[in-house]
Structure of tRNA(His) guanylyltransferase:
Amino acid sequence: MAGSRFAYVKNFELPDRLLPGTFLVLRVDGHSFHRFSTEHGFSKPNDERALCLMDHAARDVMDEFKDIVLGFGESDEFSFVFRKSTSLYNRRHAKILSTVTSLFTSSYLFRWSTHFPETPLRYPPSFDGRIVLYPSEKEVQDYFAWRQADTHANNLYNTAFWALVQRGNQTTTEAHASLRGTMASQKHELLFSRFGINYNDLPSRYRKGSVLLREEDEASASLPGDDTSNVEQDQEHPCQGIHNANVAAPDEAPRETVPQISKQGDAKRDRKTRVSPTIVKVLHCDIIRADFWLARPDLLS
Ligand code: ATP
Ligand code: ATP
Ligand code: MG
Ligand code: MG
Ligand code: MG
Ligand code: MG
Ligand code: MG
């Protein structure tokens, strides 16, 4: 086929290699999830099942793409940062973006019935995706701080908005009008004085989003049956179905078993290079303050 007279069309494809030595931040976002969430009966302002499903899809992505060192999710979006030396697909932009976005989407569908056992899908959801390159750790840290600050602002607004609608008997138009121009402190005050809601008591998952990172799997050394100790979940709102589903294989494990003629010394080399198994953990912690990064000095290196 390569030698056919048609093969010249291949030359119209342009190289799209991403700048070497830079951090790749890939963000997926649900397409028209305002509608999707309404049509699938998401509870407002925060549907726990939907957030857990997003986390689950993100875990699947991180189990597949080992060069992702950190993920952050809120609402219908997830961001992933790849280590800056990644050579995934030769750093081809379209290949990386389309494959990761596609895997996230198919995993969202694959895991749907685990988190929404009673809710049939009415139509197939989709996600958009983009990659932004950042030159240093500072911009990457600020990027994640930006997304978490967005989580805070949106969640405070949405919590106040839905309190006015669901408990204050306002229409959605009235609720928007009530909140127009208000400062964060006024929304806190409104929630507390009118609805008895102390915003800071809401689950950390809602206020801080989900932080996914790799940690050594201590549980691989623990007793069989001790099955939830390895995943740090929000205890108030544990996610159904993702507790044990995603213990990652050792980093260097081949995806497919290709028959190979064994050579002397292989076993020894395997033992030497084998890294301990890692597991993708879900945290709902602050990533705006420096502490998160100071506690993990090697995360982005
Ligand atoms: P676009 O296609 O431009 O992204 P969108 O409708 O998806 O449009 P977003 O700004 O991405 O708009 O907002 C996502 C919307 O999805 C939220 O405003 C909210 O209505 C809904 N949503 C997402 N996740 C949840 C959830 N866990 N619980 C309740 N609603 C949710
Ligand atoms: P890449 O990720 O680079 O695309 P690939 O393994 O998908 O790698 P392709 O060049 O896209 O490689 O080829 C797709 C392969 O999938 C085919 O070579 C064939 O082995 C298999 N395949 C796809 N469709 C069918 C089919 N309908 N029946 C049998 N095999 C198929
Ligand atoms: Mg959007
Ligand atoms: Mg969206
Ligand atoms: Mg969004
Ligand atoms: Mg093909
Ligand atoms: Mg293919």
Q: What stands out?
A: The domain at 14-245+276-294 is CATH 3.30.70.3000 (Alpha-Beta Plaits). Confidence is low (pLDDT under 50) at residues 222-237, 244-273. The radius of gyration is 22 Å. DSSP finds ten helices and six strands in the chain.
